[in-house]
Write a structure and sequence with these properties.
Elements (H helix, E strand, L loop, with lengths): L1 H22 L23 E2 L5 H4 L7 H13 L5 H6 L5 H7 L3 E2 L1
Protein backbone atom coordinates (compact mmCIF):
# COMPACT_ATOMS: atom_id res chain seq x y z
CA UNK A 1 0.00 0.00 0.00
CA UNK A 2 2.80 2.44 0.93
CA UNK A 3 4.72 1.59 -2.26
CA UNK A 4 1.63 2.27 -4.33
CA UNK A 5 1.15 5.64 -2.61
CA UNK A 6 4.78 6.63 -3.28
CA UNK A 7 4.48 5.65 -6.97
CA UNK A 8 1.30 7.69 -7.39
CA UNK A 9 2.88 10.72 -5.71
CA UNK A 10 5.98 10.48 -7.90
CA UNK A 11 3.85 10.15 -11.04
CA UNK A 12 1.80 13.23 -10.15
CA UNK A 13 4.98 15.23 -9.45
CA UNK A 14 6.63 14.19 -12.71
CA UNK A 15 3.52 14.90 -14.81
CA UNK A 16 2.99 18.23 -13.07
CA UNK A 17 6.61 19.27 -13.52
CA UNK A 18 6.53 18.33 -17.19
CA UNK A 19 3.32 20.29 -17.80
CA UNK A 20 4.68 23.25 -15.88
CA UNK A 21 7.93 23.24 -17.85
CA UNK A 22 6.06 23.23 -21.17
CA UNK A 23 3.74 26.13 -20.38
CA UNK A 24 5.65 28.32 -17.97
CA UNK A 25 6.52 31.79 -19.30
CA UNK A 26 10.08 32.94 -19.50
CA UNK A 27 11.52 35.79 -17.48
CA UNK A 28 10.19 38.29 -20.01
CA UNK A 29 6.68 36.91 -19.67
CA UNK A 30 6.53 35.31 -23.10
CA UNK A 31 6.21 31.60 -23.84
CA UNK A 32 7.97 32.02 -27.20
CA UNK A 33 11.68 31.58 -27.48
CA UNK A 34 13.60 34.71 -28.29
CA UNK A 35 15.00 34.71 -31.84
CA UNK A 36 18.72 34.72 -32.35
CA UNK A 37 20.28 38.13 -31.96
CA UNK A 38 20.20 40.02 -35.23
CA UNK A 39 22.01 43.13 -36.20
CA UNK A 40 19.45 45.66 -37.42
CA UNK A 41 19.79 46.94 -40.95
CA UNK A 42 20.71 50.60 -41.13
CA UNK A 43 18.33 52.92 -42.95
CA UNK A 44 21.00 53.92 -45.48
CA UNK A 45 22.18 50.37 -46.11
CA UNK A 46 19.94 48.49 -48.56
CA UNK A 47 20.22 44.77 -49.16
CA UNK A 48 20.08 43.46 -52.71
CA UNK A 49 17.64 40.53 -52.68
CA UNK A 50 19.21 39.07 -55.84
CA UNK A 51 22.78 38.90 -54.57
CA UNK A 52 22.77 39.09 -50.77
CA UNK A 53 24.05 36.04 -48.88
CA UNK A 54 21.85 34.38 -46.28
CA UNK A 55 23.85 36.07 -43.50
CA UNK A 56 22.67 39.45 -44.83
CA UNK A 57 19.06 38.41 -45.48
CA UNK A 58 18.54 37.31 -41.88
CA UNK A 59 19.25 40.88 -40.77
CA UNK A 60 16.00 42.04 -42.36
CA UNK A 61 13.15 42.44 -39.85
CA UNK A 62 10.54 39.69 -39.47
CA UNK A 63 12.19 37.30 -41.91
CA UNK A 64 12.04 33.72 -40.69
CA UNK A 65 14.32 30.94 -41.83
CA UNK A 66 11.52 29.76 -44.09
CA UNK A 67 11.21 33.21 -45.70
CA UNK A 68 14.96 33.49 -46.28
CA UNK A 69 14.93 30.03 -47.86
CA UNK A 70 11.97 31.02 -50.06
CA UNK A 71 13.80 34.15 -51.23
CA UNK A 72 16.98 32.25 -52.10
CA UNK A 73 15.02 29.54 -53.94
CA UNK A 74 12.94 32.07 -55.88
CA UNK A 75 15.97 34.06 -56.99
CA UNK A 76 17.76 30.93 -58.24
CA UNK A 77 14.87 30.29 -60.63
CA UNK A 78 15.06 33.86 -61.94
CA UNK A 79 16.29 37.13 -60.51
CA UNK A 80 13.79 39.62 -59.12
CA UNK A 81 13.28 42.46 -61.62
CA UNK A 82 11.85 45.01 -59.20
CA UNK A 83 9.56 45.37 -56.18
CA UNK A 84 6.44 44.51 -58.18
CA UNK A 85 8.03 41.28 -59.39
CA UNK A 86 8.98 40.37 -55.81
CA UNK A 87 5.45 41.08 -54.52
CA UNK A 88 3.88 39.24 -57.46
CA UNK A 89 5.74 36.04 -56.65
CA UNK A 90 4.38 36.07 -53.07
CA UNK A 91 7.67 34.88 -51.64
CA UNK A 92 7.01 36.30 -48.17
CA UNK A 93 3.83 37.29 -46.30
CA UNK A 94 2.28 40.72 -46.81
CA UNK A 95 3.24 42.08 -43.37
CA UNK A 96 6.88 41.16 -43.99
CA UNK A 97 6.86 42.86 -47.39
CA UNK A 98 5.67 46.11 -45.84
CA UNK A 99 8.44 45.94 -43.21
CA UNK A 100 11.30 45.33 -45.66
CA UNK A 101 10.16 47.47 -48.60
CA UNK A 102 12.44 50.42 -47.79
CA UNK A 103 15.38 48.20 -46.80
CA UNK A 104 15.87 46.22 -50.02
CA UNK A 105 16.94 46.78 -53.59
CA UNK A 106 17.16 44.62 -56.73
Amino acid sequence: MFTRFVCICLSVCIIGATALAQTSPSITGSTRQAPAAREPVGRTEKINLNTAPVSELVKLPHLSVRAVTAITEARTKSKFKDWNDFVGRRVVPRFVRSEIKDLVTF
